[in-house]
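User: I'm putting together a teaching handout on how multi-component assemblies are represented. Below are the sequence lines for each component of a complex, exactly as they appear in our records. Could you produce the 3D structure of the whole assembly as structure tokens, so the students can see both representations side by side? Please keep the chain order the same as the input.
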Amino acid sequence: MRLPFEITATDPGSRARRGSFLTAHGRIETPTFMTVGTRATVTGLDPADLREVGAQVLLGNTYHLMLRPGIELFRRVGIHRFMNWSGPVLTDSGGYQIFSMTGDRTMHERGARFRSYVDQRMHLLSPELSIEMQTAIGSDIMMVLDECIDSTSDEATTRAAMERTHRWALRSLAARTSESQALFAIVQGGVVPALREESAAFLTQQPFDGFAIGGLAVGDARAQREDVTALSAELLPRDRPRYLMGVGTPPDLVHAMGCGVDMFDCVLPTLLAWQGTAFTSTGRVKVTRAECGRSDAPLDAACACATCKQFSRSYLHHLFKCGEPLGSRLLSKHNLHHYLALMAEARAAIEAGGYAAWAKEKLAAIDRHEHAGGGRA
Amino acid sequence: MRLPFEITATDPGSRARRGSFLTAHGRIETPTFMTVGTRATVTGLDPADLREVGAQVLLGNTYHLMLRPGIELFRRVGIHRFMNWSGPVLTDSGGYQIFSMTGDRTMHERGARFRSYVDQRMHLLSPELSIEMQTAIGSDIMMVLDECIDSTSDEATTRAAMERTHRWALRSLAARTSESQALFAIVQGGVVPALREESAAFLTQQPFDGFAIGGLAVGDARAQREDVTALSAELLPRDRPRYLMGVGTPPDLVHAMGCGVDMFDCVLPTLLAWQGTAFTSTGRVKVTRAECGRSDAPLDAACACATCKQFSRSYLHHLFKCGEPLGSRLLSKHNLHHYLALMAEARAAIEAGGYAAWAKEKLAAIDRHEHAGGGRA
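Assistant: Of course. Below is the structure of the complete assembly, with chains in the same order as your input.
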């Protein structure tokens, strides 16, 4: 088995590590934040925008892509050519989307049965079909299909879902046909430490290229999420990348990197952008507020992104007030730049051996701005 | 009075002319198509996109901009800095928007009274206020406020509106305070040749920097529009730019350039793009049609735009089917490139002295594709 993950620096004051993961479409410098492009597009942004903000890896979603444009298209052209993105792509398996669905879906040992929002027909997403679909998509990193549950579920439910996730992980490994596409397993077990230990022990016996921590950011409180993250990261082998799925806010990332997590994804920077909220060095800013309409200053004077270099708060306010899509696009670019610059800073801090001090200062600054009225949008 | 318009070539077989018009923000090469950015934004596109498609001049709208963001903002920063566009900007006066309004608006000798869609209050847009607003906006070319009517109105109504437009044109001239901003008058007179002659004779006695042909593309048939365009262009002085407002389709532009028209604007390329329709060298293409979803070819194999170089019809189809705004943006860039490349070709044909032959071939090709099923969307 190939081991494409390399650790180049570790932090003396924390578990943070600096590394890189080699994929068929280039090297990923870790820790990294992956930009969410669910439907083979990061809403409103083209590949030039993504390069400009410093995106390394895009995340697509098997569930959405199997429904539209469908597997036939991906058998002709992979996702890289389809969306004209030459860098690495990770595909999520669809497990989380099926968990999030309201309405017509049932979970079986074979897989998840659900009704398509595109053609209203019933589909079965099995571990094997998810791998077949991800193979056709041609992502650089594939994820096993897992059974997600609410993190407030009782222990019996949590155990049953974890055990099914383990069986599905073995079926996913068996279904894999492409050696050039990495395959990551997903540790489950909710917020029960013993189950997390059991899950990690089981999955790390198998030849996966990396391990994800799943089932967080689904109803859990921040302190609980931090505890489970710290515990789970410690249980995972040092020589494989650790991916914390669906997390999170900047403080979440700073904390998790200190626990030795290498990869993240979250819709927050783009989702909040489309709702008119910007992350800035002095807290969150809602650009639709009247005071933004009167300000000719940039969104964030400390930010080097193209939006802050070119446009004022009053212009962004104007675009949002007019319902003009350029506003959301400019804010998406800013928010992604904010996240990706944070990751670049973190990588530099680990290289310099000063991650623990950097993280402490960063968390204190974010906390200070949130309490000073920047607030949470 | 300065005469910043220079004619550098004329076509022996038509009235087409090649020129340039010097503004405070650079030279406009004519004939030119101006990109519509009504609310200080060309929907979805940033200045880099606009430069990429070859945009020379943007068109903003006084009516919309006075309501939002309002004159106070423009007294602080002009439109160039506001939207980060360093090239020429033309502002329409608001006359056409008030004509197009349904609901609460009345026309008076003082100006147009209407209810704001932003704050529901009554506003009066007078010729003087329109100039004051355009002066604050800082556009390079200002338009006089005119009274627009349906081109199917009776002759008495058409004459009354034309005469008011003349009085308003004189008031606009008197209200002008900035010599660095050009001011264009608007010839009216509906589809009545005698009125068009009277209007042109009156207005061309005044020291305007250019003359527009207004009141077309508002209910008139193509043949009638072509006749009035030919007549009006001939009535306008050779040494000033001629601007045909709100027109039109590619054949409209090709015809009007042959009549000696120098400037155009139209929402069609961007409006159709947001509806999923592309102009191509082989006719219009509706990208939401199922056959586009199965095609890995570019929108237009003969097109050199970034959209055609980077993306397939199936990707554009996918984006539109998902309601993803990147689809409209990529199609807008393509359609604007299509228009702007047509204008560049026309300028080259005039320079080469072969406009008449080029235009004949171009119109025949468009006609052929439209009848071959490319069709009108």
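A couple of points students might notice: The CA atoms of residues 284 and 373 of chain B lie 9 Å apart. DSSP finds 16 helices and 16 strands in chain B.
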